[in-house]
Write a structure and sequence with these properties.
homohexamer; about 140 residues; 5-stranded mixed β-sheet
Chain lengths: ~140, ~140, ~140, ~140, ~140, ~140
């Protein structure tokens, strides 16, 4: 049993914004993150499994790349997280929430029990780890 | 005579969009960059000069840091380049154009003849260099 | 339940030196690390928790940044670990020991049960991980 | 109890190739990886232990460096994994298999119970983790 | 007038080998580089020009990406430089020579006068710069 | 004619300190840099030349590595710049001054006309470039 990790990147815009609050209340709660801004996100997806003796692979990485492309990059890259995706109508696009959205998308797309961890970098100095199972 | 470089970072949202064109024409011209998205920009500002023998410095870096903060970070960080700044009403916020805007702001803020080069990274694989003087 | 990590940096000088030993014995035991030298340390602090549904955050990162500034950067940045801090009078400032000192400072400053891991890089090729609880 | 990690690098050539298959079948199974190519591998070796109070060290890093040099770099650096090493006669040199070969070499060379994890990067966007014990 | 740079990567195997010399003479001249090995090469291609006022671009980066893909990645990625390409029959695939081969390929593929510099990294600590014109 | 660059690293301690000034005056002039601290310096040395047709090399990199080791690493690594080297008795060890000291050492050790540039990083966000000839 081992783990293999593959990274992908996407560029999105966003603001921390609770539609139930006034503009002033959003500003008070979220400070400058309530203004429209953007990030180069980096996603690292870790799978666990036993390599197939014939191929030496836990999963063919071309297949994993296609899944990341379809489930993550196509949904979030060059998109506005608040306006262009359905995931942040009732929650704020913090890295905590975005990482959980991605984890949920990947659990459904990957073979059962294979997803080990989703790590999402907002920038080099801030990131979130979500496990397949809550800790 | 030598060169010294200091880096700063800012996170902005943007879209490539020419207001004189229709939405369809913008989409045709700029592809997915016509959609709202965002970047962690990295700016590297290079100064040239002779170190002061008393301090060993071309410029006190606390002063340079303040200039970068005031002229660049305060204007562009956690802002939408198209909607929240006056610089892209008539031009598209490509890294080429954004780097030139920053160069013009810094030339006015720095002692004459001191700015050597502005380098602006959109991401690790794409960047623009603008010199104080056109090449 | 998830994990969120934030990085900070500090620049310190140090030498591996046991005051109970002679200079020659320190030299024999620690080699070139017994000479005065320095590092750009990088600290990565990982918290665990459940995001607050109203804010989408495990902890407001402005608060975490202030804690790291006060507890770590203000104590160690632009300081000599042996001479300017009280932590290495009886132990050598190896990355193992420095990471444990930082872990102890952060456990007291953070809400109970929130610190998951302290990672301290001496340079890109060497680092130490200390968990809230011993492994 | 804590963990300490040290990195090393080596440059090898390889191809994904099962000698029991025809050239066409290798090509079908492994795609472009069936062609001779190469990588700058990066290895991160994590040890766990309690620092010795006299030295503040889990293990003297000069000793660890020598072990990595002898067990890994001397075997794989500037070598062809398929032709110049005995490890891939019956298995394909995927990062999964190479990481396990290195784990087995290091377990024998290190004090018992000290190896925590072997991480092997094929490039910045793809890596494998193998623990001392299967997960 | 400004400069814009885009990076690409490719993984190749190679050995420093002069076919006119004996194996022993190659070994003497090139040391461990005479053994088959490999690298993750990183290429940075710099163009110079004036941005088109309508698009804000020196060159559409989708076009540049296609040229790099066709002229460089398709020729060298997952290839053996000595055996699978025609460029090193009479010269050794040092980074100096490989960078010049790539420069010559790109000058022919790009609009005249646009190529400013080719930078080729063999690894993070070693790289070569070739200008459009010899210095 | 092309350029080739090789990097090396060293870890030193230092303080910005003018012996002709009082402690209070040093503190006023240099702020927190007047306190003893340290850095992981990264040096990038660029040579220019025409590759030898027989070897494909501007200079044998084993020779360059030995020169960097002898002239730079052996002098500055695990040393205190102020106390353990003769170069900062009358000048402050700013990166500007340290880069010039290294340039002067390398010009004498390298074949005439071969040194193109010395780049010295104090950290990832601050560095100095010194050319063989003043700009």
């Amino acid at each position: 049993m081992l783990r293999i990790t593959r990274a992908a990147e996407f560029c999105s815009s966003l603001r921390y914004w609770d539609p139930a609050l006034s503009a002033a209340a959003n500003q008070r709660r979220f400070g400058r993150c309530a203004s429209q801004h953007g990030h180069n996100y980096r996603l690292e997806v870790t799978l666990r499994g036993v390599p197939d003796p014939a191929t030496g692979m836990v999963m063919d990485l071309k297949d994993l790349k296609e899944i990341l492309e379809r489930e993550v990059v196509a949904r979030f890259d060059h998109r506005d997280l608040n306006g262009d995706t359905p995931y942040f109508a009732k929650q704020v696009p913090t890295p905590e929430n975005l990482a959980q959205v991605i984890r949920d998308l990947l659990i459904q797309a990957l073979p059962a029990g294979m997803l080990d961890r989703v790590r999402l970098y907002q920038d080099e100095d801030l990131w979130v780890d979500v496990l397949e199972e809550a800790l």
